[in-house]
Each structure stands twice: as C-alpha cells, then as structure tokens.
Amino acid sequence: MSCLDAQIAEPEHRPQVIGVLNVTPDSFSDGGLWADPATAVEHGLVMVEDGAGWVEVGGESTRPGTDRTPEREERRRVVPVVERLTAAGVTYICMHWRGHSRTMQQRATYDDVTREVVAELRRQLDAARAAGIDADRLVVDPGLGFAKTAEHNWRLLHDFARLRQELGYPVLLGASRKSFLGRLLAGPDGRPRPPRDRDHATTVLSAYAYAVGAWGVRVHAPAASRDAIDVAQRLRAAARRTQT
User: Fold this and answer.
1) pLDDT tens across 153-205, in order?
2) In which residue ranges is the amino acid composition biased (Basic and acidic residues) (predicted)?
3) Which residue in 28, 98, 158, 170 has the fewest CB atoms around it within 10 Å?
4) Mapping DSSP to helix (H, G, I), strand (E, B) and coil, where does residue 217 land?
5) Which residues contact 154 (CB under 8 A, 6 or more apart)?
6) Distance CA 206, CA 190 (A)
7) pLDDT digit string, tens, across residues 63-73
8) Half-sphere exposure for 181 (CA within 13 Å, toward CB)
C-alpha cells in the first residue's frame, strides 16, 4: 500500500484543516495583524477552537515581488510563537515553487503544467528522502500561485486526482484567499475582490478538496472550511447509503 493509499483508504477520510497564522508585517492577506507574539498565540488558539487541526506559523511574506526576509528576522518572528504552539509530531510539506517571490512569475512557463509540476516535485521528494526524511512524514503541495498563472492554478485544481495518483503521496490544497480567486470574483470595475472577502470561494474549494481526496486544506478561516468539509462528507455518506 502506498503512502497515498494509507491516507485515503478509509471511506470517511476528511482533509486536515490547517490554519494560516502570519507573523509578518507585509503578508498579502493579514500582514501586521499578528506581529505581536501574545496576539499571535491567542489567534492561533482561536483557530484551533474553530476547527484547525494544525496551525502554520509564517515568518516571511511570499506575496509576488516581495524581498527575502533575513534569516535572523524570520527566526525572531516565528520561534516565540512556535515554542508556545508546539504540537506533537512533525510533517514535512514539500511544495512546488520556482525561484522566489521577486522572480517566480517570470518562471511561470509550462508546456503541460501538471506534468512538469509532478516531475519537479518528484525531484524534491527524492532529495527529501535522501536527506533522511521518512516517506510517511512527507506531504506534497502543488504550490498554487507560486510561479503559476491563474490558468495554471485552475488546471492543477482540475488535475488534482492526477497529482495524487502520479506522485503517490498525500497532497495538500492551498488556495485560501489567493489572487486567482480575487480576479475571478472581480467587481464591475474590474478590481479583484479583496483577500478577506474571498473566504466563501475558499470554502467551495475546501469541499472540493474533500471530494478529490486531499490530505488537507491550508486556510485563513478554519471554521468555514470545517463546515464545508462536514457538509461534503455528509453528502458522500448519504450517497453510499443510497447505493447500498
């Protein structure tokens, strides 16, 4: 049985809900809101109460065009929060990305985005295994928005099952509040919908993540995604009862 099979073999498998906690001054969605460690810890605990099984603490903004954060500064932002929110066990998420924030969109060129993302992730997974990371600790993330156009993101979402099948590892879906959703939901004036107003669209993708067997969803508003997954799971259970 592959790592993927172990994650989705149970009929009632549901995605992990991962809350995004940015302790940065300049993240696209919530930059500056959680820069104080005490406030960040409080918000992280609220995320857990809202249904997040995991909390990701980010110390460097990855919005397009941003500069890299010095390592010392990133540690200063992250370590106090992580020390106070530490949970048992460590999972390594291997995400596809070309370049870094300042240059990544210049490298968003693909003949077949799904095929190339799979190939590049395989190389990253091989490197992780060679570094001594056990296979059962590895999760992959296609990196929506990272060296991807909106059309690339939609193609990868459409091909999610293909990603799972070809990689053989659990796959994380991270689409929360991303710019391709904002552009899709632009107002009559053509302006993209602001990040905090993209949560309804995000919850649709969280339900989709359940339907296609995602290992988890990375979201800014865990409660809404938890509800969406609950509904999708109940619908699947009803369908099984009808079939039997």
Assistant:
1) 999 999 999 999 999 999 999 999 999 999 999 999 999 999 999 999 999 99
2) 65-75
3) 158
4) strand
5) 180
6) 26
7) 555 556 666 77
8) 20
Residue identified by tokens 């300049």 is 26
Q: Are 158 and 125 in contact (CB under 8 A)?
A: no
**Token pair in block for residue 132:** 């001594």
Which residues lie closer than 8 Å to 68 by C-beta, 6 or more apart? 60, 100, 101, 102
Instruction: HSE, CB side, 13 Å, CA atoms: give it for residue 33.
Output: 14
Could you give the CA distance from residue 24 to residue 74 in angstroms, rounded to a whole number? 9
Q: How far, in Å, CA of 181 to CA of 178, rounded? A: 6
Class of domain 16-242: alpha beta
For the chain, the domains span: 16-242
Evaluate whether 227 touches 202 at the Cβ level (below 8 Å): no
The amino acid at 40? A
Cα 6 from Cα 15, distance rounded (Å): 13
